[in-house]
Amino acid sequence: MSLSERKMKILQAIINDYIATAEPVGSRTIAKKYNFGLSSATIRNEMSDLEEMGFIIQPHASAGRIPSDLGYRLYVDTLMQKAELQEREKNFLQGVVANNMNQIEYLMDETAKILSSLTNYTTIMSDPIVHSRTIKKIRFMALENNDVLVLVGTDGNMVKNHTMHLDAVPDDEELFRLSCIINDYLSGQSMEHVDERAINSLRAALPGWGQLINAVLKAVEKTTESLSPQFHLTGAKNMLAFPEFSDVEKAQKLIETLEEKDVMKNLMSVPPKEGQDVQIYIGNELGIDEMKDCSIITTHYKLSEHVTGTIGIVGPTRMNYSQVIAVLNGMVKNMEDTIAHLQQKNQPLRRQLTDSSRKKQTEQDS
Amino acid sequence: MSLSERKMKILQAIINDYIATAEPVGSRTIAKKYNFGLSSATIRNEMSDLEEMGFIIQPHASAGRIPSDLGYRLYVDTLMQKAELQEREKNFLQGVVANNMNQIEYLMDETAKILSSLTNYTTIMSDPIVHSRTIKKIRFMALENNDVLVLVGTDGNMVKNHTMHLDAVPDDEELFRLSCIINDYLSGQSMEHVDERAINSLRAALPGWGQLINAVLKAVEKTTESLSPQFHLTGAKNMLAFPEFSDVEKAQKLIETLEEKDVMKNLMSVPPKEGQDVQIYIGNELGIDEMKDCSIITTHYKLSEHVTGTIGIVGPTRMNYSQVIAVLNGMVKNMEDTIAHLQQKNQPLRRQLTDSSRKKQTEQDS
DNA sequence: AATTAGCACTCGATGTCGGTGAGTGCTAAC
DNA sequence: GTTAGCACTCACCGACATCGAGTGCTAATT
Hints:
CATH topology of the largest domain in chain A: Beta-Lactamase
Shape of chain A: elongated
Helix content of chain A: 40-55%
Strand content of chain A: 15-25%
Order of helices and strands of chain A: HHHEEHHHEEEEEHHHEHHEEEHHE
CATH class of the largest domain in chain A: Alpha Beta
Oligomer: homodimer
Largest sheet of chain A: 6 strands, antiparallel
Largest interface: A-B, 57 and 57 residues
Low-confidence stretches of chain A: 98-102, 345-366
């Protein structure tokens, strides 16, 4: 049996209705609300077929039908029409992104909140992930108690800093001189694998400064390490509002799962597929039992050549896919537009990203 | 009518029982479980008195009694015996604090999680708040596109950095020279009110560098601004487990309130009272309707002369006050001990705090 | 005078039962 | 192929009875 045009339309009607009401939808509802010019009986027969094919499910004998994961999958892949951003949403997005561009951390936070409040679902956002791979410039700043702040400048105009402890710290003047020499040897090196020969030459060039060189290498290492992304959960409380999770225990388990970063990390780390703006995981496709009634839509944003991240929206399987996709795309486009705009004006934009990423990554020795 | 010894004991028994069970407790339960050598009838009379005095409440005519806010207040102020930390809790706290001391942000996060999981309540924690007030040292680091990273070192050995944009940026050598001159004029100045005369002398000493000086002043200003604390909510999901919040709507409203940072900010910002390790707000004492069934216990930690913060535990009014107080005090003591220990070994500890606070405060211009 | 036993009473919680209605599947007629 | 009709299913709801924990009061006891 193949999916006739009519079956498609009926399936779409069922899904639309169920997304709106969260109630199993019956043949009569479809016959009345959507003018197919068919009686409920005919629709009943079609629904029976659709159930046999696995697109819809009857929760119990005398109830209407609800879409199955497979049904949603079909919906998402072929039936769904892309929603336009509503004026209200558009304004909202633009305002937020434009006004807060000078404080990336705040922006990310705010963005997540806006997404949650526009969609009424839960947002998971990764911090901007920095893909810097080359050392550009090292500088020092002497602190008290024989500590030194080591600044590591990388390609993409980013800087990260780490506090290191030394047995003896030269004054700033001497440190500056040393940093210039160190730069001669390390500038342009890959952060992951600093060339052994470069290090050796450096050590030879600066005998007696082994500890300082070690501190620099350690700082570089830490800078590299610090590139693993952090995730933030926003609006988890929204899930409580859905009848799907009116069972408190279920809701609690879900939130627990969402907060367990490892679980989400894998999902969010999936690289974006060519030519797809979003990726959608429906119900059991997630492979997480506690989330079998949830879907996740993820997208990727690119703030610069070197800085990218992931945004995910979590909702019940009957979430409003087209709206979420529209909002997500709108948000990403807006962020990227704002950035392009700022860059034209030669604003120090990439630096902001730098700082934001550094925020989560600043580390030090002990 | 005054509170006889016996009434006290009965009240305490009621509160203990209610804390454990969340069920209204009746006279017979008290008579049987706690061996006062009194019949249920006698206890009934006493309970009747206690109700008249306002310490307990009857939720409906044929139910047992539950403690009122006033009852909890009396309990907290006079009846409660301080709980000892259990071995399990002690080990847990020590392990966590000791192992993660080298990464303050991670530590704070972990601390909050541990508190939540040990108590099964919700934790609100402020980032370490930095009370720096004096400029110590300014340094620069040139970046691409005519941007400069301005490093502001303050008393308490903290450093914050801000990216500023200039029309023209001198090379690092020149920047270093300039920073030394700038330091001569600004070092020791209050961050909030840089002396006008110092600025004027500086401008006079460095004619042609007005923009750079402005950038420095702006960076100082931003550093000052960035001292307002951030709050983090952990374990909000724990509240869902309590029968008090089995009503999903109620739970949602509560979480919403907790997430509204402004509400919490006020509470958490109350300065610690002399000679009190914790402050306790019971039910309506909070003055927040959504939280009338909640209590909050807050305490303050001091990581160094210049770095302090607040931890709060939110639970139902029938929360286990003595346990929470013990755990909170244990946690704070542990953190402070670990820090003292590390400082003895001359580890660069304050720097870690520095970095952690900077994490949340790094900003830049646009 | 304080305590206790006894008892009637209250009221939420729980369980049972029939009615209601939305929804189905099936059959026969169009 | 479509539809009208009908018997059947089953969640849901309100009514009603029952149960039991708990109370307040009174009278007896110490």
